[in-house]
Each structure stands twice: as structure tokens, then as C-alpha cells.
Amino acid sequence: MNVSLITLSCNIGENMDSKKFVENNSSLFLSREGDGLYHSDFEKSSCGIGFVANLKGVKKHSIITDALGMLGCMEHRGGTGFDIKSGDGAGILLQIPHELFVSECSKSNIELPNFGEYGVGMTFFPKDLEKQKQCKKVIEENLALLNLVLLGYRAVPVDNSDLGRDSAETEPSIQQIFIGKPLEMSVDVFDRKLLVFRNFTEKTVRQRIKGVGLDDFNIISCSYKTINYKGQLNTEQVPNYFLDLKNEKAKSALALVHSRFSTNTFPSWKLAQPFRYIAHNGEINTNKGNINWMKARESLLECTAFSKEELEMIFPICDLSASDSANLDMAIEMLLLSGRPLPHVLMMLIPEAWQNDDKMREDKKAFYEFHSAIMEPWDGPASVCFTDGVIVGATLDRNGLRPSRYCVTDDDTLIMASESGVINVDHSKVVKRGRLQPGKMFVADLEQGKIISDEELKSDLCRKQPYQDWLDQSMLNIDSLEVSADFNLLEQDQKTLFKNQQVFGYTYEDITELIKPMATGGKEALGSMGADNPIAVLSDRPQQLSHYFKQLFAQVTNPPIDPIRERIVMDLRTYVGGFRNILTESQEQCRRIAINQPVLDERDLSKLSSLDSGSFKSKVVDIIFSSEHKEGSLEIALEQVFKNVELAINDGYSIIILSDRRADVNNVPIPSLLATSAVHHHLIRKGLRGSIDIVVESGDVKEVHHFATVLGYGASAICPYLTLDTIRQMEKDDLLNGLSAEKAIKNYVKAIGGGLLKIFSKMGISTLASYQGAQIFEILGISSPVVDKYFSGSVSRIEGLTLDDIAFEAILKHRKGYPTRGGASKVLDPGGEYHWRVDGERHLFNPKTIRLLQESTRDANYDLYKEYCKAVDDQSEKAFTLRGLMEFKSDRKSIPLDEVEPAENILKRFATGAMSFGSISWEAHTTLAIAMNRIGSKSNSGEGGEDEVRYEKLPNGDDMCSATKQVASGRFGVNSYYLSQSKEIQIKMAQGAKPGEGGHLPGHKVNGWIGRVRGSTPGVGLISPPPHHDIYSIEDLAQLIYDLKNSNRDSRVNVKLVSEAGVGTIASGVCKAKADAVLIAGYDGGTGASPLSSIKHAGLPWELGLAETHQTLVRNRLRNRIVVQTDGQMKTSRDLAIATLLGAEEWGVATAALVVEGCIMMRKCHSNTCPVGIATQRPELRKKYQGHPDHVVTFFEFLVSGLREIMAELGFKTINEMVGQAHCLKFRDNINHWKYKNLDLSPILFQETIGQEEGTYQFKEQNHMLDKIVDWKLINSAKASLENAEKSYGEFNVVNTDRSVGTVLSHEVTKIYKGEGLPNNTIHIKLNGSCGQSLGAFMCKGIHLELEGDANDYVGKGLSGGHLTIYPNKKAPFIAEENIVVGNVCFYGATGGKAYIRGLAGERFCVRNSGVEVVVEGIGDHGCEYMTGGKTIILGATGINFGAGMSGGIAYVYDINNDFAEKCNMEMIELSILDNDEEIIYLKEVINEHYVRTDSARAELILNNWDRESKRFIKVMPTDYKKILGYIEKAKVDMQNASESEIVDAAFDMHIANLAKG
């Protein structure tokens, strides 16, 4: 991977070509680590954070010891790898311990002045004494330069005896630099001087001293107020390593702590947190763009706080080689020391969701709008603790995706952390328990001695400047601009339009399959069954340049967002008009033009192109090059574009419109993506990017992915003029279903906007402003010189097209419109990207290969199977896949076939794809299960649950039970019994065909059978959220793995990932999170329904992801702990052999198995019209199903037979010895195709040697650490219940490290009593204290957990019939209904049971609840999201977006503030008052039970005044659910003697009949 060129200070000569540019600046590019695919830049991390403070500012040693104790209680939120003594990083930030330093420094003859009169630079020096000496020389020179006084150096006392090998090998020499403040200098100036000193010194040392790199010298803090103690340590090592922290003289009024969980195990000392001002738990998804934009602004920066010379010494503000958290800290520091208060800075960088909040105060909205014009959000999940040494506080991102709990005790101690209970506090001393809410902030001012609420804090900040007046005076909106007086929309005639469509590569399929669905329906087109045509760099057909760019997406380390149900946090607004200086504030800063969404029509573009006065002037710059096809012509044209743009900037233009409209017979359009990114990066290098904004007018942008790439590489807005003209022609051709072109264009713009939001949200990004320029793509098939110069900082690992190749591809398209010989084509190219077409794009599954596979397996004809393999595998002339470019080359002698391990051993290594019952028919699903069970392998339930009838064997001995039970984001049918019937539990983090996206099964597909299996109501649509709402980070995944292992100790846990850049480091994190297996899925895998842009443009081939995963795991010495599996268009024995050599010991085969069952690749799975009865639920079509388990078994036996033959040829006796032996593969020698001759597959074929001695395949079991859990005590106390179903009782104390309490007990019950469980309350367990995460997870019927205290996140996750009662400690002085008692995401995916909670709950309460009845006294945002069943009774206020995606169940909300209705998402629900006597009686009974169990004061008040208070309840009911319940009631009347299932089926039939009537 290459780093961004923002660090360059050189100027590129006008005639310097790409290759020479890279040669001249090779030291400025990061190369891969070694020759493989791993790169440290891919590393991600999540964390545990917290702080302890004394509100009155009293400095105590106990504050430090309490904080360190907190750190120890978050060990499960940190990480370790192979070397368990080398942690991922931990540390503490505290006030300068003046008393300690005075005492200790005197021993080194350092005389310290009073507190505040000196600063301390905590510094990591190299161990080499000579280099230390050189570093200190630079330090002393720079201190003198800045008129600062060196008081001396102190070696920090450490005890490194407990360090692990990795930590010890990289341990720095840690010393403190004591710096005196000159008498005449104010402390504010001193603070700024220390920043200048630190940045300039680090930069100078690395430039001047040979052998001192980024990790060798770091001043980790330099302040007169605070100091950092941190390192590559685990949480327990911090106080033992840094001896200062144990010294009683070390005192502070505040202490921030941080525990890091890295997905990778190559963390460094400097990456540990806290940083100088923050401890950050989260991930900045837009880090690269934020850094680029910060660099772009540097030339505009000036302020009174720093001289111009000092600013130059500080620059660059940010550093791409540092972590995202470190860069956030750097940005905060710069803005803070320039004059803004710390909370103000955090509101700028991590704003709350203001754009769609109609209830937000106008002055606050003005504050956010003003700052949105000058600074894009640093977007991503984030909980940030911060301090400047005087105030301490915390803020949460707009989505609330990180837990943040706090409490205040009666001795003025404030405790804030990722979890409750991290410090053992006497509950009777707690006066307040709270949580940080999405977008909110709270601050403790230790000088004022009080907590400042979000409302008070922001109210004060928002009124300091007249932001609204400034906006009114300076900001314009494009809608208010005048259209140019000479604007005249000239539509192209049909002949010219056709010619231009050919020039820009349009196909018939583009019009019918991509543009038409958007223009007529306002949504992206759907497709199915994945992609089996060549990737762009292997295709013979000219490709749009964007097709070489693959979208990256969130998996594990941060969650994707639901852009539909959580639209409130999303925003498409963009600005043009150039940046301003961000270090000062005035109305000038917001002098920009706001554009509400980035798709411009010609009228909008004319408004911008006609600007020519005042602050806004626009210039059109042509992006075309000569059609003569001379070497270097495109590079020359780009250099001319650069010149023209620079001239425009020098002439005062602030908007540049890059336009290819002047393409003609002599001029070829430069691909708009190339032109945009090239200009963007050229201007960054020149220091001019902040002066202008880029608007693109192009004919090659037509689908969502094209927009995403051009915006992602720096454009602010795009006019797709040729697509708009095409839509106008479609009206004339009657292709718009009767719509006018005007309406169709609005639909198209809407579809693009919706598609862009979905792409942003895949990466966990909420705003276009953050996405713009963030470059969240991997490039697949473009050479390094091109990437380094024009797409700087992007990932590109296998080389590919040169700039001249890109030019040639553009010319090939151009020649179709302007042929050089012969006549022009009369029709557009057919396309064939999405469906096989005669004369269209090639597909591996085509009529011939489908016929050969089906005939060979039905007739058990191995020779015919070999013919099929030859048709698929022979890619010597026409390449389809990366593996098609490889061939075998063994360094071993061939062996006889009978020496290869037997087929029955190898057959056990197979799995089928995760296709749910619902996406495919009962017949197709059970056929796969029977076949896989016959061969001892694993079929997969998919995400739709499983009918319990399949848990009993058939009379002939066949087994329909899926060995692998999938746990996906919808949690459909996931309960204790389901999990107990698994041999493997697979956590589906992403799906190859649509990573980062959820799903929606329409109500008309949810018949009675599917509804029962999924635990939902027939006829009601089911939504799978994009994220798992209990996995917002790597430590959350570790928790779910732990939960599932508790739910079935004998089942292995498998985590499904999708191939993308960095998946190897994610897989390392998955291994460290103690998964037993990891699946790397290729982007090309099948799907029942997915947006076409996702099928084609998200994710990577499995060859890349698998090789990176294996290399990274080996390098981390973790490969022996985890099974690696891969899938994605696995078709032949050769595919299996290559996958094994690249690192997989197991393989998934899905699409090919469906073809064996009879699939003919119609690719209409999403339409429920499958003609062979596979992907349909329609009875008449299911009758056409002709698949048979024998055929499937034969196919897998053939696969193994072919694989064994390859193994014998290569000389491998076993799969294990074959795994990862990539040296037995090579890149084919005879490739001379112009397009892919320059590909370099050596990174894929690299064999990692570091760590290889620990093993290259799995042979060690993970330690799931279940031996000492509290559940063993619970089980012991419940013996009578387990053995004889007798009642039992036990009482136990719990702490926050007691997690998943009750889950193992539940599994023991389920093993004996199956799905029925025990009678309610058979087992009663009383718990006391602060319980850890996942209390009562997947707990079955018959168990009642009663907790006196409080609990953390995920209470009642997957509750399967058990009961929970939770209330605060009875001695606690606070008012329960005003305090937090349980955390976020409670009762996620719960299928049954009851719960009573006295107190408040956090965000996303009852998300995807499908059966539990729960009472709570107030909740946060997004309550009852995606709920499909059960009842939720809320005796208090809710947050916003209540009921989003709620399709079933009922909620009753006590509208205490008379504002509930305005907090609801009304898309799928309706509100009503209680007017049914039965319902009123039911509600009173439930509230009374809540009172009896919890002694709730709120319940008592309501019950004592029932006639009055009952009228304050509002009933929330989904509209479709209400209809279905009506049909059920009618069916009950019509069919009085029918069974429940018959009644439900009849109701579903009524529903379908009414839908058919329209």
C-alpha cells in the first residue's frame, strides 16, 4: 500500500513522468511489509477507556490507583496475541505529579520551579546511546531556538522483568525532559511553544539522524499540565512497569486510562493511548480524507497564537503514518492551542447529527452548520474521553456506537468508563448513574468543582459568536442562485447521443439493467447469484476506470450503518467555493455555496459555471486528450490540466469544473475519476488544494459506484450529462413505463443519493462531507506509478495498467463512436456484465458448463466431470480469475495416489454456503443438509433459523439438521435450542455479494412456515440490519464469541468475513477474539438479492483475501490457533488445490452445489420466480425441483477425487502439509495480453517465513477461558432442577468481569429439556453487584435471574424464554427511574421470556425483539428498532427514532413528557391510545408484576392513579402487523376447529390475495 503524497514537499516538474516521479521520491512511499500482502496500515483497533476525577480538584494518589484498577477490570477489552505478555497497548494520562517530580528530580540535581513553571516531555528515545546523544543535541538546539530552558533529563524508573518478547524487543529508553518556562512568558504561550518544540524536534530528529525512524523517537506528551505513562503493555503491566505510578507522592485530581485491542499483533509503543488530550475508543473511518484535507488547509492557516515561522515548524499537523486516534489528537491539539476551548474543538470534529433534527435549538444548529462549512466530520464510531488538565469530559459520536457509562459518588468522585462496575464502589455511596448519549458531551470542570451538562455546555459555546448572522450574510445555497441568462438545455439528437454513448462505453445492459430501474423506481437495480465474469483488469472489453476500484467496507472493527432506518444521522450536503482559514472565526469562514446533494443537472451546473464575481468565480477546464494514441499523450494532457487549474487558482477562481463535453473525433475524454484524483493530489502537493473545489461534468458517470469513486477522490459535485440525455431519449423510446423524463431524472437522482448513502454507510460513514476525498477503495489492476502519482495513498497490490494502457482503453471506447476504419456499429454493445448474453461478456457458468456439471453428477460420470473442469479451468487464452493466471510448480516428487490421505478425511473439510430457508426452498435446503451430513461435512442453516423437525433423523437414517447454525444480524430463529443443535456456529459479519449491507425479506415471501421458523409473523416483512447491533468493535465480537461458546461449549465458532484490503489483520483480531475458525468469502459469491453495484464493486476475489489472511496469521504466530476456510465461486478441484496452497484447510461450495441441484443461472432469485424450484417459495414452482442428495454427494466426491490427483502430482500426502505452500504456485509465463501482462501476483504467492515455525495450519485449540466462570457455581446450586426438574435457589455476588452469566446454565437445561425448557422460575438465581456484559444471553425457559445492582450492555441478548428482574441496590440514594441500570442493546434478538427493569436503559433497547415481554422505565435512541414480535412496556421517556424498521410486536409507552410522537420513526408504525378493555387489563397486570418484582416507585405511582395515568399510554403497532393480526382473527372465526398453524397459513393466504387485488 502507498501512503498519501501529502507529506511531499517537492515540486514535480511539468514533464516528469510517473515512473521518474516515483523513482525520485521512492523514500516517501510506504511499501508492503516484505513481499507479501500484509501492511501495518491495515491495522485497526478498539479499546476500553475511562477516567477517574475528583470534582473539587483535590489531588490524591488514590485517583491514580483507582484508574489503574479500572484499567485492570477492562482487560477483556484489551488484546494479546501469541505472546500474551506483550499487550496491544495500555496507559494512563494524569496531571503533572509535582510532588513526586520535586522529590525525584532532586536526586538527579534537577531543581524544579513551582508547578506550572515547567513542562515535562515524556519521551521514547532509541536504546542506542550514540543515537540518544544525537537526539539530545537536537533537543537542546531546538529549545534554545525557542527560548526555552532545559532543566535536565530524568530516566523514568521501570521494571521490565514482566515484558513479553515482542514488547521487550521494541522497548524504548523512556526519559523525561524537564523544560523551564521563561519568567516573562505566559503559560498559554509556553503551552504553544511546547507544541512547536515537540513537533519540530520529532521532525528534525527523523530527518537528521540516520537510523532513527517513526518508531524510534517520540515525545509522547509535552505539557506543563499533564503527562502520559503508556506503552506496549497489557493492563496489569502498566503500574508494575512504571514505578512512578506506585509512588505515594504521585498525585492527581484526574486520570484517563486506555486499554487497546488491536486486530493485529504488531502494535508499537507509540500507538498506545492515551494521547496528549484524548483516550479514544473507536475508529475514524475517514482518516485518510481528514488528513488530506488538513494538509490542503495548511497553506491557508494563520492566527495570532502562532507566528508563520512557528506554523511551518509545526506542519504537517497530521501524519498518515500515525493511527487514526493519534491524528485526531493532533487535530484537536492544533485547534485547541489556536484559541478554541476543548469542548468547542470536539464539537467541530465529532458533531452530533444536526442536519435532520427539527427539534434542535436554532443557535446550536447554526453553530454546527457554520462549522460544517469549514471542517468535515472525523466520522466513525467514537467514545472520546478528553482533558486539558483542568477540565475532564467525554463525548460520543452521532450514532452512539460505543458504550460510555458514568457514576458520581457522595465523596465527589466521578467515574467514567466503557463499562459500569470497573471500580468496586459501594452502591450505597452512588448518587448518580448515567450514560453518555449519541452526539452528547459532558464536562467536569475541576476548577469550578461541578459537572457541566451537554445542554449548558453547548448553549454557552453556541452563543459566543453570531453564527446564524454569519450564515445569513455569507453562505449561499445553490437553489437560491440564478440560472445563467444564456442557459439553454440543448438535447442531443439521437445520432449524436448514440455516438457519445459509444465513446463513453455505454451498453444496452447499462440502459435496461442499471439506468431504467433507477429512472422508473427511484432505487438501485437488484441482482442475484454473484459474479462469475472477469474482473475489470482481466476483461477483454473496455471498462470504465471506476470498475478497477473496489469499495471497502466495515467489518468487525466498526459497524456499518442503516441509511434507511437511521436516515436521521445521514447527510448528502456538500459545499463549493474553496476553504478558509480554520484557526480563526468570522463570517468569512462560511462564505461557501451549499449543495444539498451532489448530483447536478444541467440547470444546476449552469448556476455554478456562470459565477464570475465577488467571492465565487468558476472556471471550466477541459479534460480531454489526443485520439492519436501516442505514448505519453495522456500524461501530457494531464499536465496541461494541472497548468490550467493552477492558472485559474492564481486568477482567483474558487470553483473548477472539469468537463469532458468537448470530446470529439480528435479528442478522447480523460476518465473523470483519473482527472479528478490527479488534480486533487497535484494541488495537495502544490499547497493549493484548499483554494478551490472541484465539480465534474462528465459523460462516463452513470451508476452509483461511478459517483462514489469520483466523490471519494475529491469532487464536490457531479453533472452526469450523458446519463440525463439518455433518460430523455428513453422517454422518446417508451422505456420509462409511462413516466416523463423530468420525473425519471428526479427518480434517478434519488436513486443515486440513496445508493451513495448505502455506500457511505457500508464503511460506517454518515456524511458526504466526510466521505469526499476519503479514498475508501482498493485498486485492483493499476500499476504503482499511476497510483502513486494520481491516486496517492490508495491501496494497490497486484500492479496492472500503465497510464498508456488507461489511455488505450479510453481510445478503444472512443473508436466505437469514431471508428478509424469500417462502419460504426448500429447498436450498442449488449453488455453481459450481469447476465450471460450471446456476444456479451464471458461467464464461467454458461450453458455449456452448467450442462456438463449437471449431467456429470446426475450420471456419476467422472470423465464428464473432468470435461467440465477443463472448460472452467482452462483460462490460458481468456482469463476469468486471478487463480486462472496461476499454474502449479511443485518442489516435491509426485507420489502414488494411494499414498494421499483418503477421500473420507478430505470430505469433512467442506461446507455449503449460508443460504437460508426463505431464500431457497425447503427441498433445496434439506437436500444440501442431507448430502453434507452423509459425507460428514457441514451444511449451513443460513440466517433464517431452522425448523425443529429437522433435529430428528429421517426413517432412512438421513439427517436434515444443518451442522452449521448461522448467527446473522437479524438473529432470526436464534435461540438456546437452535444453538445447542449445532456443531459449528457461524457469525456472519458480511456477505461476499453485499458486504456492509443488511437485507429485507418482503412480507409476501414470509409464509406461515417461514414465519414460524424465523420466530416472526407471516406476511410481515423482515429486516436484517446492516450491523450486528452487539458488534460495534473487535472487543464486541470477542464478547459474542464468548456468549456463543457459553451457549454450546462443544460447537466451534466460525466468523465469516469478506475479502478486502486489510482482511488479514481483521482475521488476526478474530483469532485473538478466540474464534475457532474464520471464513474468507470472495466478493463473487452468490446471493438471493443484492444491489448490482454491490455485486460488482464491493469486496475482492478470495485469492487476495485468503493469501493476506494466511500470511498475516503466520506472521502473527497465530495460524496454529484457527481454521481458515474460504469460499466464492469454488467450482473445480483445481480451485480447491489453489485455495489450499494459499492457506485454506477448508472450503465452501455453494453456487456450484445449487447448479448440481438444478440451478440454470437465470439470476432471478430475488423475484421468487425460479423456474427449477430452488430460489422460490411458490408451491407450483417448488414442484419442479429435481435435485437429489445423491447428485450433491457425487459432486463433492468428484471434487475430492480431482483434488487427490493434484495432491499426488504435487507430492502432498495430506491437506495439512499442503496448506499455505504457495511456493508450489507460479504466475503463468506465457501471458502477453495488453491488459494483464503487467499484473504481479507475487504478493499473493508470497510465503511468509516470519512465524512459520509456529505452524501453518490449525492444530491448537483456543482457550475460551470458561473454566472459572460464575456459571459453574450456578449449575451446582441448580442440580436438583437439572436432574429432577425441582425448584432451586442460589445467591451470588457478581462484578463487571462476570460476563454471559446464566448462559452455560441455560445450555445445561437445554441439553436435557430441549426446546421446552423447564417450568417458569424453576431455577431462581439472585445476583448482587455490577454484572458484566450479556447477562442472561440465550437463557432458556425455567431460569429466573434477579440482579440487585446494575448491568452492562446486551442484557437478555437472545433471551429464549427465561426471566430477568433487575433493580438498583436497595441502599442506593438515587431515584431509580432517573438513573441508568442496564446498558445498550438489551434484548437484541430475544425470542421469548419476560423481564422487569427498574431504571433506565441505553440505546437500541429491544432491537429485533421477536418474543420477549419486557418492562423498563425509560430508554435511549432507536428503541424497538426492527422489532418483529413480543411486547415492550416503557414507563418513561424514550430517545429519538423509536420504532424504525419495526414490523411486528407492540410497544406501550408512558408518555411522561407528552413528546413521544415526535420521537417516532413513522415509516412502518402507527400510534393510538388504549381503548380496548382487555388490553388495559393486560397492561395493568404487567405493571403490577413489575412493581411486585422490583418495588418500582414509577409503577406504584401509575397503579395508584390508574384511571388518570393509563390515559398517558400510547400504543405503538406496525401497520402491516396490525393487518395480519386482523386476518388471523378472521381466520379464527372462519376456522374454529383448525390448528394454530392452519389459522396462520389461512391468514397469510388472505394477505396475499388482498395484495393481488392491489
Write up what this structure looks like.
By secondary structure, this protein is of the alpha/beta class. It contains 49 helices and 52 strands. The strands form twelve sheets. Strands 43-44-45-46-47-48-49-50-52-51 form a ten-stranded mixed β-sheet, with helices on both faces. The longest helix has 22 residues, at 187-208. It is globular and about 90 Å long. It starts with 17 loop residues before the first helix and ends with a helix.
Q: Provide the low-confidence segments as ranges.
A: 1-33
Mean pLDDT: 92
Number of helices: 49
Largest sheet: 10 strands, mixed
Strand order of the largest sheet: 43-44-45-46-47-48-49-50-52-51
Number of strands: 52
Global morphology? globular
Beta-strand residue percentage: 15-25%
Structural class of the secondary elements? alpha/beta
First and last CA, distance: 54 Å
Indicate the percent of residues in helices. 25-40%
Radius of gyration over C-alpha positions, nearest whole angstrom: 32 Å
List keywords for this structure.
single chain, 1558 residues, alpha/beta, 10-stranded mixed beta sheet, 7-stranded antiparallel beta sheet, 49 helices, 33% helix
Short description:
The chain is α/β, with parallel strands linked by helices. 33% of the residues lie in helices and 17% in strands. It contains 49 helices and 52 strands.
Per-chain topology:
Blueprint: H1 18-24, E1 45-54, H2 61-72, E2 90-95, H3 98-105, E3 118-125, H4 129-145, E4 149-155, H5 165-169, E5 173-180, H6 187-208, E6 218-223, E7 226-231, H7 237-241, E8 254-262, E9 278-282, H8 287-297, H9 308-314, H10 324-337, H11 342-349, H12 362-372, E10 382-387, E11 391-396, E12 405-409, E13 413-417, E14 430-435, E15 441-445, E16 450-452, H13 454-462, H14 467-474, E17 476-477, H15 494-503, H16 508-521, E18 526-527, E19 549-551, E20 574-576, E21 593-595, H17 602-609, E22 612-613, E23 616-622, E24 624-626, H18 633-650, E25 655-659, E26 667-669, H19 672-686, E27 693-697, H20 704-712, E28 715-719, H21 721-732, H22 741-762, H23 768-771, E29 777-779, H24 784-790, E30 795-796, H25 803-817, H26 847-858, H27 862-873, E31 886-888, H28 903-907, E32 910-911, H29 922-934, E33 964-967, H30 976-980, E34 984-988, E35 999-1001, H31 1008-1014, E36 1022-1024, H32 1034-1047, E37 1052-1058, H33 1063-1072, E38 1077-1081, E39 1090-1091, H34 1092-1097, H35 1102-1115, E40 1123-1127, H36 1133-1142, E41 1146-1148, H37 1151-1157, H38 1179-1182, H39 1189-1210, ...
Parallel strand pairs: 17-21, 23-25, 25-27, 27-28, 29-30, 32-41, 33-34, 34-37, 37-38, 38-40, 40-41, 43-44, 44-45, 45-46, 46-47, 47-48, 48-49, 49-50
Antiparallel strand pairs: 1-8, 1-13, 2-7, 2-8, 3-5, 3-6, 4-5, 9-10, 10-11, 11-15, 12-13, 12-14, 15-16, 18-39, 19-29, 20-21, 22-23, 24-26, 31-42, 35-36, 50-52, 51-52
Helix pairs in contact: 1-24, 4-6, 6-9, 10-11, 12-14, 15-21, 15-25, 16-21, 16-22, 18-19, 20-22, 21-22, 26-27, 26-37, 26-39, 29-39, 33-35, 36-39, 42-44, 45-46, 48-49
